[in-house]
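Q&A log
Question type: sequence-to-structure
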Amino acid sequence: MKKIILIGLAIGLLLPVLLMAKVEYLSEEEYKKLSKKERLHYWETLENELAANQERKANALANQEKYSTRIEELNQELADLNNDYDVLHQEILDYLGVSVDDFAGIQSKIDYFNEKIDNWNQLSDKDLWKAKKSVQELIAEYNEYRQTNYAKVPDFQEQFSDLDNKISNLEMNLQAAKPKYYEDSYTVVRGDYLSKIAGYTFIYNDWKKWPIIYRANRDQIKDPNLIYPNQILKIPRGLPNTWKVYRGECLWRIASYPEVYNNAAKWPAIYRANKDQIKDPDLIYPDQIFDIPRD
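Response status: OK
Response body:
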């Protein structure tokens, strides 16, 4: 009994597979070699295949009509949506005060920013830092343009999003290119004096550091109490790797400067690093340029 049930299950499972199996069409020579029983089976198979194809054709025609109707409905919905979009898009442009004629100018501005950024991204860190002022000016220009209504037009949001990322990366690259020591500049205005300048938050935020500014500008400041409007002063950032000797200086005094070692006892480090030009540590001369070793 179990064998019969299993055979029945096997037939039940195989029958749909057999019915769905692809018919292998015979050539005339192959057909002639069939027995009478095999020919009858072959024709039954063909008739079953024909019936199945007719059924599929009927279903396809029925579905075609149904889907054609649905396609027409969807096309109408799409047309309505496009019309609504056009109306809303025009309302947004009207609100922003931007016309379609302005699009070429907006695209031109986007291309301008992209070209500038791409050119700077090809520079070495050293060259990028040299171009710092121009880079910062472009970033400021972009941020200003980003606040205009032109940058709010929906058609350009993806491009502006890409530019936002590029500007952010450019700022990070510029920061990464910053050397350990460099010099900013500051233009003196009426009422300025060195301690006041040093106390500005964007300078040192500490008025006591005015001597750093003085020493960096001794070529143009003869008296630290006398500076003049429109003078352009160097503002040291970080710790220098070289030092130009001025009249009255000695190794221990140079070592005592906060921008050097802030410790007079470290003067031997300067002496050892510059033995090729210092024969006697008690004798150094103006305009000598010493290496300042850094750990």
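Response note: Strands lie at 182-187, 232-237, 242-244, 289-291.
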